[in-house]
Amino acid sequence: MKALDVIEIFDKIRPNSFEYKSKKAWVDSVETDIRRFAALHRENTPDNLQLNEENPVLFLDFSYADLYVYYLVSMADMTNGEYRLYNISSTYFNSLFDKWKRQYRSSNTPEKPKPIKI
Predict the structure, then answer these.
(1) Tell me, what DSSP letter sits at residue 1?
(2) pLDDT at residue 56 in the model
(3) What is the pTM of this model?
(4) Phi, psi of 10 (to 5 degrees)
(5) Residue 65 has pLDDT above 90, yes or no
(6) Any residues with CB less than 8 A from the CB of 95 and at least 6 apart, and which?
(7) Measured between alpha carbons, how far is residue 115 from residues 43, 108, 118 in Å?
(8) What would the DSSP string read from start to end of 37-94?
(9) Which one of 6, 13, 45, 103 is at 20 to 30 Å from 109 when CA atoms are compared?
(10) Radius of gyration over alpha carbons of the chain, in Å?
(11) What pLDDT is recorded for position 112?
(12) What is the rounded CA–CA span in Å between residue 88 and residue 29?
């Protein structure tokens, strides 16, 4: 999945007048958070190369499109001053993000070394 795919989905469900660069900055923001979390559990540094690309391939696939889209929805709600809607959309985004983090952590945390018996 690419950044433009997320932006197109967002534009379909929430018609808006935001500039492409604003929406791209929002996608970059959540993508950076995702990559930082993933790097933390792989014990390496996050690559932020996606920030240098116009339409980068995102870390998560289409099955997690809602996570990206609801981040854009919540940012749009906040920017428009629609705080009641922002509370709803950001809560939904946070629940999706927390669910992904739990799933990622459980499948990517290395096993603890077994104690050596002497």
Answers:
(1) -
(2) 79
(3) 0.83
(4) -60, -45
(5) yes
(6) none
(7) 22, 21, 9
(8) HHHHHHTSPPP-GGGG-SSPBPSS-GGGHHHHHHHHHHHHHHHTT-HHHHHHHHHHHH
(9) 6
(10) 17
(11) 67
(12) 20
Residue 13: per-residue pLDDT: 94
Measured from the Cβ of residue 20, the count of other Cβ atoms closer than 10 Å reads 12
First to last CA, the chain: 51
In terms of C-beta density within 10 A (0-12 exposed, 13-18 middle, 19 or more buried), how is residue 33 classed? middle
Distances from the Cα of 60 to the Cαs of 6, 13, 17, 19, 35, in angstroms? Answer: 11, 20, 26, 24, 9
Place of tokens 């919540």: 74
Q: Which amino acid is at 49?
A: L
- Mean pLDDT of the 13-24 span: 94
Spatial distance between the Cα atoms of 98 and 93, rounded to a whole number of angstroms: 9
